[in-house]
Design a protein that fits this description.
three-stranded parallel β-sheet, alpha+beta, Arc Repressor Mutant, subunit A, globular, 10 strands, four-stranded antiparallel β-sheet, 2 domains, 265 residues, disordered C terminus
């Protein structure tokens, strides 16, 4: 395993935690950053994978390793980085875990709460959320909020003790419970359109514009159907929030958010 971290000291924090978890530290490696910082496009990552052949590569946190020239909120800049890591993971048969911080947008759908571009959770095959029980801060849980290859798993509860993690078994906590993002009660069908509207807004705020095919693809990755996105488009168009610009290529059209006058915002 390669465990790359930018937030905790290896000797005083990471290793004691590994020892407490009964890890075999001889099989855990770190790419040296003492002389030069690491980014996910750095050739040292593939060199390490080719030499060590790890089964797991942990990046903690993702934001610290995107690179100084990459704006984490812009999909067109994040996408090549994720594509490169995906290629290496497949080439060397290595699973990759990317740890992310959350944004402050408490009303957003849990899948969109990661700090940065929506392309990050869209590119992942599985997304987990770790949070606290709002009614018992000593209790935590891991909730499965996306799974592209199987059904979502059940939430698992745990506490942190002086001796490490103590697992509590299956937990009733959901991602929204831990985020405190309880929505106003609406019909299930209307909720889906609300989520589609939110996704369209996020994508267009990140990129200024996007084609319909790009948005439909992102929706598919997020479990939102084409028809639901079309209904979101119709609502946003009727509200005057979307503009469309056709190109010379047949069937290709760019969607953009309409800039509203200041007194209407």
């Amino acid at each position: 395993m390669i465990y790359q971290t930018a937030e905790d000291g290896l000797a005083d924090t990471i290793k004691p935690r590994l020892v407490a978890a009964n890890a075999d530290c001889k099989r855990i490696f770190v790419i040296d950053e003492s002389e030069k910082g690491l980014s996910l496009l750095d050739s040292r990552i593939e060199e390490a994978m080719a030499k060590i052949r790890p089964r797991l590569f942990i990046i903690d946190p993702l934001q610290a390793y995107l690179g100084g020239d990459v704006d984490m909120h812009r999909a067109n800049e994040v996408r090549p980085v994720l594509k490169k890591i995906g290629f290496l993971a497949e080439k060397y048969e290595c699973s990759v875990i990317m740890i992310m911080h959350l944004s402050k947008a408490s009303q957003s759908r849990s899948l969109y709460r990661g700090l940065g571009s929506v392309d990050i959770p869209a590119a992942a095959r599985s997304v987990l959320l770790v949070g606290k029980n709002p009614n018992n801060p000593n209790e935590r849980a891991i909730a499965h909020i996306k799974s592209s290859l199987a059904q979502n798993g059940k939430s698992l509860g745990f506490t942190i003790t002086d001796f490490g993690i103590q697992w509590l078994g299956e937990s009733p906590l959901t991602a929204d419970d831990m985020l405190g993002a309880h929505r106003f009660e609406k019909s299930e069908d209307k909720n889906k359109v609300d989520e589609a509207v939110e996704l369209v807004e996020i994508i267009l705020n990140e990129n200024n514009e996007a084609t319909a095919s790009d948005i439909f693809k992102a929706g598919k990755e997020m479990g939102i159907s084409r028809r639901t996105i079309e209904r979101a488009r119709e609502r946003m168009r009727d509200e005057g929030r979307l503009t469309f610009d056709k190109t010379s290529k047949p069937g290709k059209c760019f969607w953009r958010l309409r800039k509203m006058p200041d007194f209407l915002e």
